[in-house]
Amino acid sequence: MKRFILHFSATLILFNINFVFAESLPVLADVHVHYKWSQTEVTTPQQAVEALQRNAVKLAVVFGTPPETVLDIKSTADLEIVHFFQPYIHPFLKPHWFLNKRVPSAVREALASGKYKGVGEIHISDGIGPRMDNKVFNSILEIAAEFDVPVNIHTNSSSPRYMRRICQRHSQTRFIWAHAGGLQAEAVGKLLSQCDNVWVEFSARDHLKSVGGIPVADNDGNLAEGWLALMQRYSNKFMIGSDPIWPISEIDSWHTDDTGWHKIDEVYMFHRRWLNRLPTDLANKLRYRNALKVLKRHK
């Protein structure tokens, strides 16, 4: 009995310390959060919510496969969860999701239900697919515009031209460009100058799993070349994301649990280091306010 009391007391103290610590941090909006089938056995919905709370995340966009899994992550008094519908109806169909003719109707039904407030993350690759004339792909983007919700889009391309064709063709659709396209500041700037319906997020541009091989900043919080000037020029366009997946080499593996949520504290610390070096107003936009605007959440 004494051992139980000591364990309970230590847990309570740790909870209070985390709560006080979170209260002292500037609030964050995370626009790229996964909760999916390969994570449920190692991270419960409650543990996921607690991870967000202890990092002072007040707004989080959550998507995953199968898409109904994300509905287990629920809002609390101090945390708003925004569910996106990821059109990978079956995990093993992910590489060819754009060939599934059932997807557009599933997206429409999901958005019409009111349970989902966006679409994504969707993955597209230059040279692999979908083609620009793919009916499934184009229908999804048109449906998102019809419901006035954003689309989180992950492009695999060495040039912003691929994304430019999409955002210009679908000028009424709001895009959240995952991982800053895996590109450097100069290329991202070119895209932003050509498409005012695109917002940029920095998930997976951290030191653990940087898409494109180069993080947005070093471990001391020094931004890579060109990013500060671009953020200042397009101060309303940038946001952060955690993208809690791990290990990178075993994404959606049937034999390895995804322990990305176990790394999430470290990812938030990385982003806070470079955010803390920004001018105050710019930092507040990237931390939280820009996400409110693109998601049309009014607070």
Describe the structure.
Helix 3 runs parallel beside helix 4 (135-147). It is globular, with a radius of gyration of 19 Å. With 299 residues, the chain is an alpha/beta fold. The strands form two sheets. The chain has a five-stranded parallel sheet with strand order 4-5-6-7-8. A three-stranded parallel sheet has the order 1-2-3. The protein is built from nine helices and eight strands. The protein has helices at 2-23, 45-54, 103-112, 135-147, 161-169, 185-194, 227-233, 264-275, 280-295; strands at 28-34, 57-63, 80-83, 119-125, 151-156, 175-177, 198-201, 238-239. The chain has one domain: TIM Barrel, CATH 3.20.20.140.
Largest sheet geometry: 5 strands, parallel
The CATH class, by name, is Alpha Beta
| Order of the strands making up the biggest sheet | 4-5-6-7-8
- Helix count, DSSP H or I runs of 4 or more residues: 9
Strand content: 5-15%
Which architecture per CATH? Alpha-Beta Barrel
Inertia-based shape: globular
* Total individual domains: 1
Structural class: alpha/beta
What is the N-to-C order of secondary-structure elements (H for helix, E for strand)?
HEHEEHEHEHEHEHEHH
CATH-defined fold name: TIM Barrel
C-alpha termini separation: 47 Å
Q: What is the gyration radius calculated from CA atoms?
A: 19 Å
CATH superfamily: Metal-dependent hydrolases
What level of helicity do the residues show? 25-40%
Number of strands: 8
What value does the average pLDDT take?
A: 91
Could you name the ranges where pLDDT drops below 50 across 5 or more consecutive residues? 1-17
